[in-house]
Specification:
The chain is mainly alpha-helical. The chain is built from eight helices and no strands. The protein has one domain (12-203). It has helices spanning 12-39, 54-73, 80-83, 87-96, 101-119, 128-144, 155-180, 182-203. Residues 57-194 form the CAAX prenyl protease 2/Lysostaphin resistance protein A-like domain.
């Protein structure tokens, strides 16, 4: 199986790797994804404190980190008893992408099938394969729900841009959540949003 770390137990290798990935995400944001958006003259990626009202800042720094971590990564413990907490994600996906009900339903059915098939092989923990698939699924969904951040007319292009902008960060937060815990991923999510708003305030 896999090893789990808990928050603040002095695991310096995890803290160091988290910090390195954090810096990598910021570099990726400003040297890869942002230049792509600038090339296509897309708006919505450069929000800073001056662009948000008090409610917007409160949402970005507190509400979003707490709710998004609970909904999208709360179940990523590796334990079977927590896995079905993925259902709220499926419901959100059905609501947002209602025009693609059949596709979403098929994906959701496949996930539930994997869970029950996996149950035949392990008792308390899900398998590595199901864990990795769940992390990838959750990260893609987390990325796609941000498609309205980009002010463009093409729905499919906005989905693609959402993957470009958010998928690396989503995978990173899933890693932090699994290795460190939900509190750690929530704090990291807050710091990421704070860093991006602050840097945007300086450079844009």
């Amino acid at each position: 199986m896999y090893n789990k770390f808990t928050l603040f137990q002095g695991n310096t290798s995890f803290i160091l790797s988290s910090f390195i990935f954090y810096i990598f995400i910021l570099i990726y944001t400003y040297f890869v994804s942002d230049p792509i958006f600038q090339f296509y003259e897309i708006e919505g990626y450069d929000d800073s404190f001056r662009d948000l009202d008090n409610i917007g800042v409160f949402s970005a720094l507190l509400i979003a980190p707490v709710l998004e971590e609970l909904i999208f990564r709360g179940y990523l413990t590796g334990y079977r008893k927590h896995f079905l907490l993925i259902i709220p994600q499926i419901i959100i996906m059905l609501i947002i992408f209602y025009n693609y009900f059949i596709i979403v339903s098929l994906i959701s059915t496949f996930l539930i099938f994997l869970f029950y098939y996996d149950k035949k092989r392990t008792e308390d923990l899900i398998s590595n394969q199901l864990l990795y698939f769940s992390i990838f699924f959750t990260s893609i969904l987390f990325s796609l729900i941000h498609y309205e951040n980009f002010q463009i007319d093409s729905f499919y292009f906005s989905l693609m841009l959402s993957l470009i902008a958010f998928l690396p960060g989503a995978l990173y937060l899933a890693y932090v959540r699994f290795k460190g815990g939900l509190i750690y991923s929530t704090i990291t999510h807050f710091l990421m949003n704070l860093s991006i708003l602050t840097i945007n305030e300086i450079i844009y």
